[in-house]
Amino acid sequence: MKLTTAQALVAWLVAQRSETLEGVEVPLFPAVFGIFGHGNVLGLGTALAEYRDALPLWRGHTEEGMALAAVGLAKATQRRQVAVAASSIGPGALNMVTAAGVAHANRLPVLLLPGDTFVSRAPDPVLQQVEHFGDPTATVNDAFRPVSRYFDRITRPEQLIATLPQVARVLTDPADAGPVVLALPQDVQAETYDFPDALFEPVLHHVPRPRPDRRAVTDAVRVLREARRPLLVLGGGVRYSGAGGQALEFAERHGIPVTETTAGRTLVPHGHPLFAGPLGITGAASANALAGAADVVLAVGTRLQDFTTASWTVFAPEVRLVHINTARFDAVKHGALAVVGDADATLRDLGSDLGEWTADPDWTVRAQAVRSEWDAHIDKLRAPTPGMPSYAQVVGVVNELSEASDYVMTASGGMPGELVGGWRATGGVPTMDVEYGFSCMGYELAGAWGAALARTGTDGLVTTLLGDGSYLMLNSELFSAAFAGHPLVAVVCDNDGYAVIARLQEGQGGTPFNNFYADCRTNHATPPRVDFAAHAAALGCAVFSAGELDEFREAYARARVAARAESRPAVVVVRTRPSAWTEAGAWWEVGVPQHLSGRTEYDRGKAGQLRYTHPD
């Protein structure tokens, strides 16, 4: 079949199929987000136009934003579908590097197709080309290499035949999932080749469920049987495996209290008697208390990031760590006893070998007791007060008015601590996306667009919560969602600056500087303020404003109705208190200079840091 390189690539994308966790066959690539320039409009752009009915193209308004939307779609589909983001060369390509970092840190599959300079070099230097003085083969797209799971530059059409199976492998492999980057020189995009017909035959990709090594299971069973106070930590890998139900069954059978990481949130119903709450700095004091007393921690599908482990101070020094993960890279961290395999399959094998063994009954009932104390604490934080509401109160209202099938999101700043620590989930189906692997400001709006697209046709509504800083960082995809007709609700909390970093700065003894607007340099006696409501309205959104908590409740309820009725984003702008936070009582390591007051606590935290556990 004689096709251009671009036509062959798009035809291959159309032929790839996937299946949901429920076993429903769907397109592996359900959408492309694209911005055209001279480096891709005639090659890839022409091919996408020819296949427009089979592969929908959605117009983005920043390359970073549309690539972040692709990340949001991957998370919302439990990594079972992959969005494509395509850009021209130079700045358009480089704008997607941040999104590649987000996907890489969070182990989420996206396919990025940046345009590239001419392989022939005949017209060099071309518009938007950055010339490397010592390497004529280097282009700006080489900046993707550190944040790609798989990178290739297609310099001949027939190279697609060898590289496309690798692309599919990485995007569908639970142990290796992440961003794939195919750099497409603009002259090669337009070159033709006689491709084999078989390349375009439909392929249904089944996500593998690798079973663990029997010896590793035997060793893990031995360690668990010796435990009196085991703790089960559920991460994002449990979500992507669809193993939430199996994990709860395992916990119930053996009487093991359960906690969740940020990526594993909403797997467990909040009211479950074994649920101790979310773990770590942005988690719950209840979960952290159990973690500090546990003698064995069974971690499943987690990267064990510092916000989960409280910079490795949340566990007791003598703890024994068993880690189930499809990626050996994660499973061996901190000397854990590694059990490499799919979460669902491995928990089944482990449970079968454990038989009727159970943890100490007094330990089992402790989970509900400590979580009840945390619930009472959250209830106090959510209680109505006069004046501007706190983040906790805003989250409480959204939680109260949300439906079981809704999907809630946030990313950077102070909101992750409120959403992870305070949200009360119905459980069963993952309904939260907190991007705190890369903590990317701006993901909240762009990722919400991707999530809303992924959830088209479902009853649930996407709500994303963000601060004024994130809104100003990246807001153009609000217009993309409005133009495309994808409903969502964005709650914009205006607290006059980068409040959570100001808390870190001042809490460690630093001088207030460059975070709140009041502490920033300006030539104005009375600096201007951003009218977020007017701005969001100008981007095509329905807009609602609130000052006090009751006003916010009414505004959010109206926004939900408007988003659905008008098929566009509804934005709720609410002024919030800048210094009220939910605290889980865990330590986080950041570099504190010797002369600041926080150095004493820093030294204390370092002294209690878990360095290594032996895998036995």
TrEMBL record:
Reactions catalysed according to its record: 2 pyruvate + H(+) = (2S)-2-acetolactate + CO2
Family: Belongs to the TPP enzyme family.
This protein's encoding gene: iolD
Domain Thiamine pyrophosphate enzyme N-terminal TPP-binding: start-end pairs: 32-128
Keywords: Amino-acid biosynthesis, Branched-chain amino acid biosynthesis, FAD, Flavoprotein, Hydrolase, Thiamine pyrophosphate
Gene3D superfamilies recorded: 3.40.50.970, TPP-binding domain
Entry-linked CDD domains: TPP_PYR_POX_like
Enzyme class, UniProt record, top EC level: transferase
Superkingdom of the organism of origin: Bacteria
Protein name stated in the entry: acetolactate synthase
EC number: 2.2.1.6
Positions of the Thiamine pyrophosphate enzyme TPP-binding domain: 435-574
Example of a GO MF term: 3D-(3,5/4)-trihydroxycyclohexane-1,2-dione hydrolase activity
